[in-house]
Batch of 2 targets.
Target 1
Amino acid sequence: MKIINGIAINEEISTGEITQHIGKTIRIHGSIYKIRKMKGFAFVLLRTDRSVIQCIYNKDVSNFDISDIKEESCIRAEALVKQEKRSKTGWELTLLNVTILSEPIEGLPIVINQKIVDTSIGNLLDFRPITLRNERERALFKLQEGICNGFRKFLQDNRFTEIHTPKIVYAGAEGGANIFHLDYFGKEAFLAQSPQFYKQMMVGVYERVFEIAPVFRAEKHDTSRHLNEYTSVDFEMGYIESFEDIMQMEVRMLKAALDELNGNYQAELELLAVRLPEINDIPAIRFHEAKEMIAACYAREIRDMEDFEPEEEKLLSEMMLKRTGSEFVFVTHYPSKKRPFYAMDDKDNQEVTVSFDLLFRGVEITTGGQRIHNYHEQLEKMERRNMQPGEFESYLMMHKYGMPPHGGLGLGLERFLSRLLNQDNVRYSCLFPRDINRVTP
Amino acid sequence: MKIINGIAINEEISTGEITQHIGKTIRIHGSIYKIRKMKGFAFVLLRTDRSVIQCIYNKDVSNFDISDIKEESCIRAEALVKQEKRSKTGWELTLLNVTILSEPIEGLPIVINQKIVDTSIGNLLDFRPITLRNERERALFKLQEGICNGFRKFLQDNRFTEIHTPKIVYAGAEGGANIFHLDYFGKEAFLAQSPQFYKQMMVGVYERVFEIAPVFRAEKHDTSRHLNEYTSVDFEMGYIESFEDIMQMEVRMLKAALDELNGNYQAELELLAVRLPEINDIPAIRFHEAKEMIAACYAREIRDMEDFEPEEEKLLSEMMLKRTGSEFVFVTHYPSKKRPFYAMDDKDNQEVTVSFDLLFRGVEITTGGQRIHNYHEQLEKMERRNMQPGEFESYLMMHKYGMPPHGGLGLGLERFLSRLLNQDNVRYSCLFPRDINRVTP
């Protein structure tokens, strides 16, 4: 019998600690990112968990041959830490000994150790297990982590409880045809389009809840804005006085995420030359007014009075940036017809809902709004839409037995990151994207 | 045009702040959990986000009639904070005015405001949207939140990067028949049984990664230990020297979760009378030895030399508790036949793997181990199993182009919570469980 006691083994030094060891020999590990041979010496870039460290191979002091190591070999090494004022870190490593832990069986099919991976998006995604090893590619998903951390910390500080709701569901929350069907032991089930029903139920339990989890949309069009599976940041809060409380909360949440990036992800922001937006006063315009403003400003004909064309979202963002300086714009009071059955209608105008979208740099990143909390009101709205309330019995249970006024939102994590980076395709901001033609890797 | 600036609206007081307002009138909100009428006054229990607060209705000072409020009505109230030494909190609230925000349309079909919800598990789950409003039921899922927070904080402090991997996948990681099939635009796809392939790929990128997300198992048996969808806590780490490094890391992670509960969830622990386990020295026994020890100790016949019967896991836990005082036990070196194709075999005995399970109070809560990182070794093992390596091209890409020695584990969040609470069915620890007969609510 052995004993496992959780006492940390003597670990190798992490990159952040190297600076405390100037003049000493340390043990480190990592992947060989790049080798640049010079006369009598070589630069060896070592990729560690979050940095790429420049090491020196010097045949006079290094106890191995430079040809022993290959790019993408994983190694352990002993290295001497030397003060080096020209280096950004203030030090430089000279490799003394290396142990090869593994090496690639052949040269890489794609160059990953240049500034960018210079290839088509198709190749980039096909070779994801290796293209993600590129310094910039992986920096992007550190920012994704940072955004989640910022959101989560903010929501927890504001008394939101984190929940885990099922993704195999008995009914779609958003309606429509873009839902995946599943054979569930001979019965039909679906993949959740959103945690909508569950987060509402949980408002009756904890007042404020959130979830960061996958959602699934069987979108049949192959666009640069859509993914068939994405990470949705959802929150839902009770005891609101107006749907504007939700927008206020979102603004604060977004600020918290940017603060987190500024505070803990400077290296990645610099590497990717990210220009973070300012968040101060975000304008909020009613949907109908926005439609008319765009038409007037750009001399465009309005073809669909009930929805935006993608081009209109872009123009609206452009226009509001010029007029107000804000890269964000809320659009409110969407037509009832275009919103789900649980959306609350405006008391002053039943044709529109007390709901909103948030556009950021030309693309919708959030949909939110107040929900119906009154049982009879919800029942009537379902009946007006020829829905069968009997199919939603467990959903309606919460309305039946008392719910506070409430609302919430869903934010697409990949879309938000993609707009932060000004990418022309949301797939760049998803580790392993799923679209109509892609389920691998 | 309106302006949304994220400046917090003047919020009502949260429960934790009430103590600073003794002698003053405050505004609060919540659901009426229970009304106990006495002579000339009543106790009104108000359920807020995390507490149940005792309020006094006194017809001499309360400006409403007690019959105006019902159990499960949502209210806003003005209340006077009085010092009250007999109260646990040191204060007591007298209700002055209430505004009814909503009320149930009929009496509840099930009593939720007693100490426990006294009903069958079937009813408990059928009525989840309201039974979760019970003080203890919801406390349970606060503990779930606390466990996740503890794990996440620990992993981030130890340089693990949080990732989001796809749940719609092209191949199952665990093999076998218990996988859900999906019609993905006319092609066949599956629901992920684990993030195995992706977390391994990401070790090549960040060295250490983790994910807390749903996984799906099409288990056809209806047992008290299985869910068809559960939340899996997965981590994977590179540059290990032995699979024991993973076990050491897990022990520290578990300690961190218990510390988080002790530090920030005392109220819930007390309410549920949870006895947290001690984690000091956890014994680790080889699978074959464990089988023989159980057989000898309990005079049982060994029927299956390659797997545990559930009863044997229970007996092993019992035996190890007696012998070592530990409620946890690692079982190591499981037979290769019973482990997936990516499990690394023991160099000294190809019949067993350098893998482990962790049992806690009689049930397996974790499976982990070292993975094959060498391309040729992985290819050979797949060929020995008559697998088609061509189907796993994108998975094998990482091995081909260099991977460090690595391994990791998956822990079932609901199972762990369920054992902490000594429940006889894992469904109690899942908000909305999915089993062969249940996809609602």
Target 2
Amino acid sequence: MKNKAVVLLSGGMDSTTLLALAQSQNYECYALSFRYGQRHNAELEAASNIAKQASVIRHEIIDLDLSRFGGSALTDDNIDVPSSSSTGIPITYVPARNTIFLSVALGWAEVLNAKDIFIGVTAVDYSGYPDCRPEFIQSFENTANLATKAGIEGDRFKIHTPLIKLSKAEIIQLGVNLGVDYSKTVTCYSADSAGKACGICDACRLRIKGFEEAGIIDNTRYC
Amino acid sequence: MKNKAVVLLSGGMDSTTLLALAQSQNYECYALSFRYGQRHNAELEAASNIAKQASVIRHEIIDLDLSRFGGSALTDDNIDVPSSSSTGIPITYVPARNTIFLSVALGWAEVLNAKDIFIGVTAVDYSGYPDCRPEFIQSFENTANLATKAGIEGDRFKIHTPLIKLSKAEIIQLGVNLGVDYSKTVTCYSADSAGKACGICDACRLRIKGFEEAGIIDNTRYC
């Protein structure tokens, strides 16, 4: 019997690669996405299409409106998405986002009796986002195993971060080897309703650079 | 200047006492509730009234439908709320609920630049619910300080659990001393739309016993 896994799926490159990787490792995958007030709603359509194409067991999109709190360029209309890099933690950081997403994934995993949760945090991100660092993931895993009936009575939960040490180029190479069609993914922080990318935000620039370094053509549509 | 605090407010006895206590300790309180698919929606109306009466700075009710996952008598219509006590973790346990609630509270606290989060977990609950135990709370606090910009760059977040060692009777005594009007709180897992309590579920029985032990009259309306 296959083990069940909950896979956090944004519809971007990293989580799409993550899903393909989890499936290649023989997990029965339950994909989880969030409508959290992000500007880039095209991501969610991408997530739906990707989940469908990957034939996941179930795909849930959970409504959780973090824009009520504001504080990030991704959820607060009063803060512009920057078009150049900055030092320190980027303004696109969404407060506690990965903690919230992992917590909800944990709740679903416990109900499903799944012990494996996959999240596509990467080295490129964790230079800036605190909740992409290995020490955060390790601490969340400890918390998860104290928080739950399943973590206490049964096997321990494991938070899988197979992309954490990979560069964008390495992720793309991995995905291509796994048969991922990156033209279906949406990366841009400011993608338009048709999913066309701006080509200038942080996320777009990392994507473009990644494909260049991997020597692979990206079929993403830019405005 | 007062310190800001995010206070998790369900509309029940414990969190209402918690809010009064945080205010008595001179915190500027931001109350946070969830519409998470619970059967007992009367709780949320109680929470709104209590937040208003307490003149909190802001009260947010966040929609987060955990009934999509099921797995608890509180959120799954296919599982009955038990009318007698059982051993082990009760079926009214909602998977990862406190982890999820604390994570969202953490996100709001970071945006507000609040370093203090209050949650009304109690000794009576943690005999059954894994996410009411002190070791869980301590672990979540560690995770919170690794997860966030504020936890890394500024003062540490503190998760306050002032009720954790108190019995129901002691909580009631504390609340009465703080001027809490318990007739406004809703405890019952199966309260009707008018907020009337069943008098027989676990939560009702703990409440009734608490008032008896405290020697105080409870004006709650029972069906």
